[in-house]
Amino acid sequence: MLIRKRPSWHISENHATDEAVYLSRRQWLKTAGIAGVGLSSGLLNSAAFSAPITGFPAKRNTAYTIDRDITAEVDATTYTNFYEFGSAKNIWRKAQKLNTDPWMVTIDGLCDNPMTIDAADLIKKMGDMEERLYRHRCVEAWAMTVPWTGVPLANLLKLASPKPEAKYLVMETFLDPSVAPGQKQSWYPWPYVEGLRLDEAANELSFLATGLYGREMPKQNGAPIRLVVPWKYGFKSIKSIVKFHFAKEAPLSFWQETAGNEYGFYANVNPGVPHKRWRQDTERLLGTNERVRTQMFNGYQEQVAHLYEGMPHNILYF
Ligand code: MTE
Question: What is the predicted pLDDT for the residue at 51?
């Protein structure tokens, strides 16, 4: 995935907000008597403090269980891709600097019900959370199987009510180089952007995840809400989303803009189509030395193959 090797940004671990500092901030807000109250101006912005997303652990939806061992939690949460915090896999400590409280999300563009809303309120409006076991296949040929908590992305479409002209859902990650040192690397086109065709977004598998392993989402895995589209290479599953935008045209995604000859818009998993620099027919299971065969659409052919009928294969699988 790494495209250009430059002197990497380093933030020393003691720069990350540690729990004591974080707790004292909450304690301060509580002592000041403003916990849970949105202030309209002044010292803090209009949504200075919000309720956390609740409902963990959520009930497992047994329609989405699979015949692979679940990846150890420690592996899924310490081997992560989150370029905002650097291109190494072990950036989980750096990601603790991300402040997810409050977390405002904007829904705009071609829809009847645009809004700017706190993440927890947005989730509440989308119905009960559930847990699903999905395979995750990174374009770098490693894979994991994890229990995600969240809500179907289709519920966001219902809430926003896209206009008939809207054909794509464009999603954007936060932009704040003061907490995310990777965003000071100006050769990347920040903020991270991804998109889905609206029928892909409405597919039953498309999921807005709020948690992992029965708990709220760790920051390094994309707190407080991220996309999970398990039939596509992992880079489509955008983390820490702040914006959902309904558009007529497909966006140019972060990786397309970074290296358009290696990463396309659809990025559907296909073991028969190698990446420009490596094969894609097998994958390493995270936390093990085991390699297994990669499956067409990552094993989700039944649910998604119909979305691409009649389309030229050369645009669907890279
Ligand atoms: N989202 C953002 N904003 N930034 C990223 O660097 N990396 C992607 C995807 N979403 C990424 C992102 C890639 S390449 C993968 S494989 C998955 O997140 C990794 O998810 P995980 O770290 O939770 O396993």
Answer: 80
